[in-house]
Design brief:
Peptidase_C26; nine-stranded mixed sheet; alpha/beta; Rossmann fold; 23% strand; hydrolase; PuuD-like
Length: 239
C-alpha cells in the first residue's frame, strides 16, 4: 500500500505576505515532488490548534517537518535575542503537538532545517537564536545569493548512522539557516557535523523512535542529486 506522508504546512497571512490578497496554506513543492517520486502520497496539514494533532497523525503513516520561520524561544524558556527573525508561535505549538503524537503513535519523523531544530527543542534541547552567538562560527550557513541547487559547504557524516548508509563520509550541502542546535536533546545523537562544529543532522538514540533530520534542504536538490532524493526514498519506504 502506498505510504501516506503527512507534511506539516506553513501559512501566508496578511501580517506577512499574501497570495493575491488571500491567506494561503502551503508547503514547498520540492517536498511534494520528492515524496511522490519516492512512491509516497503527500498530504499537507494546515496549521490548526494542537488538539487536532492526534487526528492528523492517526490518518498518515509518517510525518515530514519542513523549513520556515525561526522557532519561538518561548519553547526553550529564553527571551528573544535582538537577531531573532520572524516566528509563528501557532505553527510551533501545532508542530510540537504533531511531533509528540507521532512519537506516541510510533509514526516515523523526517525533519528538514527548522523542522530538525524544532524536534530538538520539543525533545528538550535548545538553539542558538543566531549563529553569531556560536563562538566557533566559521562557515557560511546562509548561502544567498548562491542558488540552492549548488551545494556550498561540507558536512562530515558519521559512518555508524542512518545517514552513513545513504551518504558518503564527506558530503557537500546547500545551507539556509541562521539558527542552529545548541544543546542537543538527550534522546538525539548528532550524525553529521559542519567543519565549524555546527550539528547538521540528527537521529534518535532509541531505535523504536524512528526520527531523523537534516539541517540542509534536500527538497531543493532532489531532482538534480540522487543522493538527496535517497533521503526521501529511505524515509518513505524504509524508516
Amino acid at each position: 500500500m502506498q505510504p501516506i506522508i503527512g507534511i506539516a504546512g506553513n501559512h501566508l497571512n496578511k501580517a506577512t505576505d499574501t497570495f493575491q490578497g488571500n491567506e494561503v496554506t502551503y508547503t514547498p513543492q520540492g517536498f511534494v515532488q520528492a515524496v511522490k517520486q519516492a512512491g509516497g502520497l503527500p498530504l499537507v496539514f494546515p496549521i490548526l490548534e494542537p488538539s487536532y494533532a492526534a487526528a492528523f497523525i492517526s490518518r498518515v503513516d509518517k510525518l515530514l517537518l519542513a523549513g520556515g520561520q525561526d522557532i519561538s524561544p518561548q519553547l526553550y524558556q529564553q527571551d528573544p535575542h535582538p537577531k531573532l527573525q520572524e516566528t509563528n508561535l501557532n505553527r510551533d505549538l501545532f508542530e510540537q503537538a504533531l511531533i509528540k503524537e507521532a512519537i506516541k503513535q510510533k509514526k516515523p519523523i523526517f525533519s528538514v532545517c527548522r523542522g530538525t531544530q524544532l524536534v530538538n527543542v520539543v525533545l528538550g534541547g535548545t538553539l542558538y537564536q543566531d549563529l553569531s552567538l556560536y563562538p566557533n562560527w566559521a562557515v557560511k550557513h546562509e548561502q544567498q545569493p548562491t542558488v540552492p541547487t549548488f551545494a556550498t559547504h561540507e558536512v562530515k557524516v558519521s559512518a555508524n548512522s542512518l545517514l552513513g548508509s545513504l551518504l558518503p563520509e564527506s558530503y557537500f550541502v546547500n545551507s539556509y539557516h541562521h539558527q542552529a542546535i545548541k544543546d542537543l536533546a538527550p534522546s538525539l545523537k548528532a550524525i553529521a557535523i559542519a567543519n565549524d562544529g555546527i550539528i547538521e543532522a540528527v537521529e534518535s538514540k532509541n531505535p523504536e523512535e524512528k526520527i531523523f533530520g537534516v539541517q540542509w534542504h534536500p527538497e531543493l536538490t532532489h531532482q538534480v542529486n540522487p543522493l538527496d532524493q535517497s533521503l526521501f526514498d529511505y524515509f518513505v519506504n524504509e524508516l
